[in-house]
UniProtKB/TrEMBL annotation:
Superkingdom as given in the UniProt entry: Bacteria
GO molecular function: protein histidine phosphatase activity
SUPFAM superfamilies for the chain: Phosphoglycerate mutase-like
Name of the protein in its database record: Putative phosphoglycerate mutase
Length: 218
């Protein structure tokens, strides 16, 4: 089984990848008011905070090192605005990149949900009126199928999307159960890189802030 190697180092150099394929770059959008307060944000189309816009702009330098043949973003403005601020103009808007539909749990924190369902997690319990893990996984598979030809041609691909959906993309890439996404912590405005190494699908970087963001925390 492929053993992913995750790194939280700041992205100040392109991750080494196999010559077989390009890099599959996943960017989670910058901070919103709800991400800052831990509220589940699926279909609600809220903007970035001023801090979220600053975070997104700080990614610009990190992304110039790639040779993108495929650029795409979720239809939610927090995602495509992150792309714009990060220097990726006019990405293709892909509805499949939208965040998990949380149904009646939209806008609620995990603690609020657990008052009614004490053991609930998004990975093991379908939100009332929302998407199942299987439905979200199917969307992730479609996204990967669309960008694979670009990677096979040796070009890089980038998607701007959301926290939970990014984690599902990684589990699908690695042929892991969707429930394994619980182990893949992902912060706002971070870059993650999936690729292949000697024919195996791997994680080259995960949850990496921009070099600027990393320097601010040192």
């Amino acid at each position: 089984m492929t053993r992913p190697v995750a790194s939280t180092d700041a992205i100040d150099a392109k991750a080494p990848t196999s010559t077989e394929v390009g890099a599959f770059v996943i960017v989670r959008h910058g901070q919103t008011e709800w991400s800052a307060s831990g509220r589940h944000t699926g279909v609600t189309d809220i903007p970035l905070t001023p801090e979220g816009e600053r975070q997104a702009a700080s990614l610009r330098g990190a992304l110039t090192q790639f040779d993108f043949g495929y650029t795409s973003a979720s239809p939610r403005r927090r995602a495509w605005r992150t792309a714009d601020l990060a220097g990726i103009a006019d990405p293709q808007i892909d509805p499949d990149l939208a965040e998990w539909d949380y149904g009646t749990y939209e806008g609620m924190t995990r603690e609020e949900i657990r008052r009614a369902r004490p053991d609930w997690t998004i990975w093991t319990g379908t939100p009332v009126g929302g998407e199942s893990a299987e439905e979200v996984e199917a969307r992730a598979r479609r996204v990967i199928e669309r960008l694979l030809p670009t990677l096979r041609a040796g070009k890089d691909a980038i998607v701007f999307t959301h926290g939970h959906f990014s984690r599902v993309l990684a589990t699908v890439w690695l042929a892991l159960p969707t429930t394994a996404g619980v182990h893949l912590l992902l912060d706002p405005a971070t870059v993650s890189i999936l690729t292949e190494d000697r024919g195996d699908r791997v994680v080259a970087r995960w949850n990496s802030p921009s070099a600027e963001a990393r320097a601010a925390t040192d």
